[in-house]
Amino acid sequence: AQSVAQPEDQVNVAEGNPLTVKCTYSVSGNPYLFWYVQYPNRGLQFLLKYITGDNLVKGSYGFEAEFNKSQTSFHLKKPSALVSDSALYFCAVRPLREESGYSTLTFGKGTMLLVSP
Amino acid sequence: DGGITQSPKYLFRKEGQNVTLSCEQNLNHDAMYWYRQDPGQGLRLIYYSQIVNDFQKGDIAEGYSVSREKKESFPLTVTSAQKNPTAFYLCASSLSYGENEQFFGPGTRLTVL
Questions:
Q1: pLDDT tens across A30-63, in order?
Q2: Do the chains contact at B48 and A90, CB–CB below 8 Å?
Q3: Cβ(B87)–Cβ(B38) under 8 Å?
Q4: How far is the C-alpha of A73 from the C-alpha of A15, rounded, in Å?
Q5: Record: contact A46-B50, CB cut-off 8 A
Q6: Is B48 exposed, middle or buried (0-12, 13-18, 19+ CB in 10 A)?
């Protein structure tokens, strides 16, 4: 069974500082990885995804994520945080279809990012 | 929220009543999904549909039912058999099942009184 761990319930960072939101995963074979963001009382918005290729993936709003196969991690990063980045962030994983057939997406429990002015 | 609408935004239900949550998409996506979100638990999959007239149970389907009679619509019924229905419900769609990122609606907050 696949799983996602987001070890931090909350991450606090000052505006202008770099931020990292951690994600580790467990899946059979190679992963298909996503990051989503959710603002209060809203649906989730897609930020970025990793399928294959370059381990550093760039996404929306200046976010990027680094895939590390040996550590089974896909941490979300941004060089300079904004107060408007404050939101709930979800990591999600599924196996690549070619290796396992169809499979559903599994989400982590989410990490609240709070950026202070 | 990208072409997916959910209604109503807030819904109140008395115990013992069935209630139907609406989800409509104009993205011409084949696949649609229903998730339940509870504080501290992330998203859990209730039902999903890969194509019209087809749907499968997700991880927590008990007490819920769905239909997929039209490509653009995937309504979710929360039945009286669902023991703890108070939650935030999210509908999503993707171009095809599994391959593409999912686009989410704004959600419906259901409260059982």
A1: 889 999 999 988 889 999 999 888 899 999 999 9
A2: no
A3: yes
A4: 25
A5: no
A6: buried
